[in-house]
Amino acid sequence: MAKYVTIPSSRMTELFESIRSGVTSRGGSVESKVAGKEVVWDIRPPQRQALVRIYTSLGVGNATARAVGKDAIRIVVGALLSEGRFRPVQKAKRVFRTAPEKDTEEERVAFFMDRFRTEIRNAYASAKEVVACPKCAAPMLRRTAKKDEHEFLGCSQFPKCGGTRKLLQNAKKACRAGRENN
To answer: What pTM did the predictor assign?
Structure first.
């Protein structure tokens, strides 16, 4: 049975510094900031339109993540629009701070951190797949046509830019699978 685990902020910081080292060595970037009372990390693959935003559940200056059972860590693949707003391009992935019962609290923390790192890697891979608009190079988002409800890619800068692309057959399957799994 899984139970909530308290994550020390030092372990989160270690994880993000490790990620920063790997991402920046490949030409990407990692930034942390404060949003409200929470530490937020942005991980951007090199030369890509999208980024991974992680809402950590770490309060500013706190030694641990918020109290267990309060919320989940959220991982969102999205894009920064020209006016600086963040726009999700996929549904947020909630990562609950749970781990199976182990012999020690440290083993439980390690189990969670491994699972969390895997979720970040998956989101990073998704961010690398976001397509650039052929007209303005902004990120494209999955859209549904009002007229016949077919899916397509539309520019995130709409209505300023009307760039569109057809979804490839594999992308359509991935879109449907993503909706069914979320």
So the answer is: 0.76
